[in-house]
Amino acid sequence: MANTVLETRDLTVRFGGHVAVDNVTCSFNAGELTAIVGPNGAGKTTYFNLISGQIPASGGTVHLNGRDITRDAVSARTHLGIGRAFQLTNLFPNLSVLENVRLVIQAKLNMGFNLFSMADSHTDISLAAEAALKRVNLQDLAAQPVSELSHGDQRKLEVALLIALEPTVYMFDEPTAGMSVDEAPVVLDLIEELKDDKTRTVLLVEHKMDVIRTLADRIIVLHNGALAADGLPAEVMASDVVQEAYMGKALEDV
Predict the structure, then answer these.
(1) Do 251 and 145 fall within a single domain?
(2) Structural domain range at position 95
(3) pTM of the prediction?
(4) Are 10 and 20 in contact (CB under 8 A)?
(5) What is the pLDDT of residues 159-206, one digit of tens each?
(6) Closest by alpha carbon to 107, among 74, 145, 64, 138?
(7) Do 33 and 138 fall into the same domain?
(8) CATH number of the domain that residue 64 is part of
(9) At what angle do helices 97-108 and 123-135 cross, to 10 degrees?
(10) Are residues 76 and 185 in the same domain?
(11) Which residues contact 182 (CB under 8 A, 6 or more apart)?
(12) What is the pLDDT of residues 7-24, one digit of tens each?
Protein backbone atom coordinates (compact mmCIF):
# COMPACT_ATOMS: atom_id res chain seq x y z
CA MET A 1 0.00 0.00 0.00
CA ALA A 2 1.35 3.40 -0.97
CA ASN A 3 2.52 5.64 1.83
CA THR A 4 1.26 9.11 0.87
CA VAL A 5 3.52 11.81 2.28
CA LEU A 6 2.51 14.90 0.30
CA GLU A 7 -0.85 15.71 -1.23
CA THR A 8 -2.49 18.63 -3.01
CA ARG A 9 -6.27 18.82 -3.21
CA ASP A 10 -7.90 21.07 -5.81
CA LEU A 11 -4.85 23.34 -5.53
CA THR A 12 -5.42 26.56 -7.45
CA VAL A 13 -3.81 29.96 -7.89
CA ARG A 14 -5.02 32.90 -9.93
CA PHE A 15 -3.06 35.98 -10.94
CA GLY A 16 -5.71 38.49 -11.93
CA GLY A 17 -7.86 36.71 -14.49
CA HIS A 18 -5.22 34.08 -15.28
CA VAL A 19 -5.46 30.64 -13.64
CA ALA A 20 -1.84 29.49 -13.35
CA VAL A 21 -2.57 26.27 -11.43
CA ASP A 22 -6.04 24.85 -11.95
CA ASN A 23 -7.56 22.50 -9.35
CA VAL A 24 -4.62 20.09 -9.20
CA THR A 25 -5.27 17.07 -7.03
CA CYS A 26 -2.25 14.79 -6.73
CA SER A 27 -0.50 12.69 -4.08
CA PHE A 28 3.18 11.81 -3.73
CA ASN A 29 4.48 8.73 -1.98
CA ALA A 30 7.52 7.80 0.08
CA GLY A 31 10.24 6.10 -1.91
CA GLU A 32 9.00 7.54 -5.20
CA LEU A 33 10.51 10.04 -7.62
CA THR A 34 7.87 11.92 -9.57
CA ALA A 35 8.90 13.96 -12.60
CA ILE A 36 6.68 16.95 -13.35
CA VAL A 37 6.72 17.84 -17.02
CA GLY A 38 4.88 20.06 -19.46
CA PRO A 39 5.46 22.81 -22.00
CA ASN A 40 6.73 26.25 -20.99
CA GLY A 41 4.05 28.13 -19.08
CA ALA A 42 2.31 24.91 -18.03
CA GLY A 43 2.44 25.86 -14.33
CA LYS A 44 5.19 23.51 -13.14
CA THR A 45 7.25 26.01 -11.16
CA THR A 46 4.11 27.76 -9.90
CA TYR A 47 2.87 24.40 -8.59
CA PHE A 48 6.22 23.99 -6.81
CA ASN A 49 5.85 27.50 -5.37
CA LEU A 50 2.45 26.61 -3.95
CA ILE A 51 3.72 23.41 -2.35
CA SER A 52 6.79 25.03 -0.79
CA GLY A 53 4.92 28.17 0.29
CA GLN A 54 6.51 30.84 -1.90
CA ILE A 55 3.06 31.99 -3.03
CA PRO A 56 -0.33 31.63 -1.33
CA ALA A 57 -3.03 29.46 -2.87
CA SER A 58 -6.24 30.99 -4.20
CA GLY A 59 -8.03 27.74 -3.45
CA GLY A 60 -7.48 24.15 -2.45
CA THR A 61 -5.08 22.71 0.12
CA VAL A 62 -1.60 21.22 0.63
CA HIS A 63 -1.11 18.36 3.09
CA LEU A 64 2.10 16.90 4.53
CA ASN A 65 1.76 13.60 6.38
CA GLY A 66 -1.94 14.29 6.72
CA ARG A 67 -1.48 17.78 8.14
CA ASP A 68 -2.94 20.80 6.35
CA ILE A 69 0.00 23.16 5.74
CA THR A 70 -1.73 25.44 3.23
CA ARG A 71 -1.38 28.52 5.42
CA ASP A 72 2.04 27.68 6.85
CA ALA A 73 5.01 29.91 6.00
CA VAL A 74 8.00 28.67 4.02
CA SER A 75 10.08 28.34 7.20
CA ALA A 76 7.40 26.26 8.92
CA ARG A 77 7.12 23.94 5.92
CA THR A 78 10.90 23.56 5.85
CA HIS A 79 10.97 22.53 9.51
CA LEU A 80 8.14 20.05 8.87
CA GLY A 81 10.19 18.37 6.16
CA ILE A 82 9.70 20.08 2.79
CA GLY A 83 13.02 21.03 1.23
CA ARG A 84 13.48 23.02 -1.94
CA ALA A 85 16.95 23.80 -3.20
CA PHE A 86 16.52 27.35 -4.44
CA GLN A 87 15.09 28.57 -1.13
CA LEU A 88 18.64 28.57 0.20
CA THR A 89 20.62 29.88 -2.76
CA ASN A 90 23.18 32.56 -1.91
CA LEU A 91 22.09 32.64 1.67
CA PHE A 92 25.27 34.48 2.60
CA PRO A 93 27.20 35.15 -0.64
CA ASN A 94 30.14 36.75 1.15
CA LEU A 95 30.67 33.79 3.48
CA SER A 96 32.48 30.65 2.46
CA VAL A 97 30.84 27.61 0.96
CA LEU A 98 31.41 25.65 4.18
CA GLU A 99 30.05 28.44 6.37
CA ASN A 100 26.84 28.53 4.35
CA VAL A 101 26.24 24.83 4.91
CA ARG A 102 27.11 25.16 8.60
CA LEU A 103 24.49 27.89 9.01
CA VAL A 104 21.80 25.72 7.44
CA ILE A 105 22.65 22.89 9.83
CA GLN A 106 22.53 25.29 12.78
CA ALA A 107 19.09 26.44 11.68
CA LYS A 108 17.92 22.83 11.39
CA LEU A 109 19.11 22.24 14.96
CA ASN A 110 17.20 25.38 16.09
CA MET A 111 20.45 27.19 16.79
CA GLY A 112 19.42 29.96 14.36
CA PHE A 113 21.47 31.69 11.68
CA ASN A 114 23.96 32.87 14.26
CA LEU A 115 27.37 33.90 12.96
CA PHE A 116 28.71 33.93 16.50
CA SER A 117 27.88 30.24 16.99
CA MET A 118 30.21 29.12 14.25
CA ALA A 119 33.16 28.36 16.50
CA ASP A 120 35.43 25.51 15.49
CA SER A 121 34.36 23.75 18.69
CA HIS A 122 31.13 22.72 16.91
CA THR A 123 32.93 19.72 15.46
CA ASP A 124 29.76 17.74 14.73
CA ILE A 125 28.30 20.61 12.68
CA SER A 126 31.53 21.04 10.73
CA LEU A 127 31.73 17.33 9.97
CA ALA A 128 28.12 17.25 8.77
CA ALA A 129 28.74 20.30 6.56
CA GLU A 130 31.90 18.78 5.10
CA ALA A 131 30.03 15.53 4.40
CA ALA A 132 27.28 17.42 2.51
CA LEU A 133 29.89 19.22 0.39
CA LYS A 134 31.70 15.98 -0.37
CA ARG A 135 28.48 14.45 -1.71
CA VAL A 136 28.30 17.17 -4.38
CA ASN A 137 32.05 17.25 -4.99
CA LEU A 138 32.56 20.75 -3.55
CA GLN A 139 34.90 19.81 -0.72
CA ASP A 140 37.87 21.45 -2.45
CA LEU A 141 35.98 24.76 -2.61
CA ALA A 142 34.90 24.79 1.03
CA ALA A 143 36.86 27.97 1.85
CA GLN A 144 35.80 29.90 -1.25
CA PRO A 145 33.21 32.69 -0.94
CA VAL A 146 29.87 31.69 -2.45
CA SER A 147 29.85 34.84 -4.60
CA GLU A 148 32.92 33.57 -6.45
CA LEU A 149 31.46 30.19 -7.42
CA SER A 150 30.64 29.37 -11.01
CA HIS A 151 26.97 28.96 -11.86
CA GLY A 152 27.34 25.18 -11.97
CA ASP A 153 28.98 25.09 -8.55
CA GLN A 154 26.25 27.34 -7.15
CA ARG A 155 23.68 24.81 -8.33
CA LYS A 156 25.66 22.04 -6.65
CA LEU A 157 25.79 24.09 -3.46
CA GLU A 158 21.98 24.40 -3.58
CA VAL A 159 21.81 20.61 -3.49
CA ALA A 160 24.35 20.43 -0.64
CA LEU A 161 22.28 22.88 1.40
CA LEU A 162 19.17 20.83 0.73
CA ILE A 163 20.92 17.62 1.77
CA ALA A 164 22.10 19.29 4.97
CA LEU A 165 18.46 19.99 5.89
CA GLU A 166 17.60 16.27 5.58
CA PRO A 167 13.98 16.87 4.53
CA THR A 168 11.45 14.11 3.92
CA VAL A 169 10.35 15.76 0.65
CA TYR A 170 13.04 16.88 -1.80
CA MET A 171 11.98 19.34 -4.49
CA PHE A 172 14.30 19.89 -7.46
CA ASP A 173 13.43 22.48 -10.12
CA GLU A 174 15.68 21.76 -13.13
CA PRO A 175 18.67 20.99 -10.89
CA THR A 176 21.19 20.69 -13.74
CA ALA A 177 20.19 23.86 -15.59
CA GLY A 178 23.34 25.78 -16.52
CA MET A 179 25.66 22.94 -15.61
CA SER A 180 28.29 21.58 -17.96
CA VAL A 181 28.17 18.01 -19.25
CA ASP A 182 30.88 17.13 -16.72
CA GLU A 183 29.10 18.74 -13.75
CA ALA A 184 25.58 17.39 -14.20
CA PRO A 185 26.26 13.70 -13.37
CA VAL A 186 27.32 14.60 -9.82
CA VAL A 187 23.87 16.00 -9.05
CA LEU A 188 21.94 13.38 -11.05
CA ASP A 189 23.75 10.53 -9.30
CA LEU A 190 22.93 12.11 -5.97
CA ILE A 191 19.24 12.44 -6.84
CA GLU A 192 19.23 8.78 -7.86
CA GLU A 193 20.78 7.93 -4.50
CA LEU A 194 18.10 9.95 -2.69
CA LYS A 195 15.28 8.21 -4.52
CA ASP A 196 16.66 4.84 -3.41
CA ASP A 197 15.95 5.89 0.19
CA LYS A 198 12.40 4.63 0.60
CA THR A 199 11.72 7.09 3.44
CA ARG A 200 12.16 10.08 1.08
CA THR A 201 9.85 11.60 -1.50
CA VAL A 202 11.41 13.32 -4.51
CA LEU A 203 9.72 15.78 -6.89
CA LEU A 204 11.62 16.78 -10.01
CA VAL A 205 10.76 19.45 -12.58
CA GLU A 206 12.86 18.67 -15.61
CA HIS A 207 12.86 19.27 -19.38
CA LYS A 208 15.58 16.80 -20.32
CA MET A 209 13.78 13.64 -21.35
CA ASP A 210 16.89 11.46 -20.94
CA VAL A 211 17.07 12.54 -17.28
CA ILE A 212 13.39 11.77 -16.80
CA ARG A 213 13.74 8.32 -18.39
CA THR A 214 16.65 7.51 -16.08
CA LEU A 215 15.24 8.78 -12.79
CA ALA A 216 11.44 8.88 -12.79
CA ASP A 217 9.25 6.25 -11.15
CA ARG A 218 6.21 8.24 -12.26
CA ILE A 219 5.42 11.25 -14.45
CA ILE A 220 2.72 13.85 -14.12
CA VAL A 221 2.02 16.31 -16.91
CA LEU A 222 0.71 19.82 -16.40
CA HIS A 223 -0.87 21.77 -19.24
CA ASN A 224 -2.39 25.23 -18.84
CA GLY A 225 -2.10 24.73 -15.10
CA ALA A 226 -4.21 21.56 -15.06
CA LEU A 227 -3.22 17.95 -14.48
CA ALA A 228 -3.20 16.40 -17.96
CA ALA A 229 -1.61 12.99 -17.32
CA ASP A 230 -0.35 10.88 -14.42
CA GLY A 231 1.20 7.45 -14.66
CA LEU A 232 4.20 5.23 -15.30
CA PRO A 233 6.96 6.82 -17.39
CA ALA A 234 6.59 4.53 -20.41
CA GLU A 235 2.84 5.08 -20.58
CA VAL A 236 2.93 8.84 -20.09
CA MET A 237 5.85 9.45 -22.45
CA ALA A 238 4.07 7.50 -25.19
CA SER A 239 0.89 9.51 -24.73
CA ASP A 240 -0.31 12.13 -27.19
CA VAL A 241 -0.05 14.75 -24.44
CA VAL A 242 3.71 14.36 -24.03
CA GLN A 243 4.44 13.64 -27.68
CA GLU A 244 2.71 16.83 -28.77
CA ALA A 245 4.23 18.94 -26.00
CA TYR A 246 7.79 17.84 -26.74
CA MET A 247 7.40 17.87 -30.52
CA GLY A 248 6.58 21.58 -30.20
CA LYS A 249 3.07 21.22 -31.51
CA ALA A 250 0.08 23.03 -30.07
CA LEU A 251 -1.69 20.86 -27.52
CA GLU A 252 -5.36 20.35 -28.20
CA ASP A 253 -7.85 20.14 -25.35
CA VAL A 254 -6.60 17.59 -22.86
Answers:
(1) no
(2) 88-166
(3) 0.86
(4) no
(5) 899 999 899 999 999 888 878 888 888 889 989 989 888 999 999 998
(6) 74
(7) no
(8) 3.40.50.300
(9) 120
(10) yes
(11) none
(12) 999 999 999 989 999 999
